Amino acid sequence: MEESIIKNNERIENIQFGDLKLIQNLDWFCYGVDAVLLADFCRAKRGWRIADLGTGTGIIPLILHYIYDPSHIIGIEIQDEVADMARRSVLLNDLQDTIQILNMDLNEAPQKLTIKDYDLVVSNPPYMAKNEGIINTDDIKALSRHEIKASVEDVIAVAYDLLKPHGHFCLVHRPHRLVDILYLCRKYRLEPKKIRFVHPNKNKKPNIMLLHCTKYGKPELKFMDPLYVYDENGDYSEEIYRIYRRK
Question: Which residues of 74-113 are buried (b: 16+ CB within 10 A; e: fewer)?
């Protein structure tokens, strides 16, 4: 089955969560530790309904399924080829009864899905604003890195529409976008409740932030302990190893 399900220039990778496997294209944007950290950070509950906005190749739904056993996960991806790869990864893991990949613009989700129906919405969106930095001429890489088709405000607005009252929204992003993101979350009544900064190591400033919001939540933001990806020897830190060993 594995040979028949992959296309030219693709590979199948074991993602270190049980026997789960992911199809990746060697020339496209591959998942990083930020996707893994977001899935761990969510603290979902068994039986929840979850939506992943901008799912890419489907890495986050696969990990969420493995760790939390939700009843249903929707992964929304606008890029045809990437969504197709995510669907094939779902089939490869025989999870089509739990995970559904939708090839659509996430801004269409409130019209095409049942609103106020999800316990958790997650997103690992493009980190760079449309006018920020050099845009890659490869369309797939550009859409993965820059807010070309959907801005962070679009993600937050759609999360609000899909979530049940007091549902949860979890986002991974870059710290330099923090002020805009906190402002937008409050604008759409997704109250920031927990934030965690992720550092490459103890000697470097954070380059990732994890944010958890609650729809209609009361104001009170908790700053969690910093997370360090690598130790002083350049190996994964003990906490990163713990995350990869989670079940």
Answer: bbbbbbeebbbbbbbbbebbebeebbbbbbeebbebeeeb
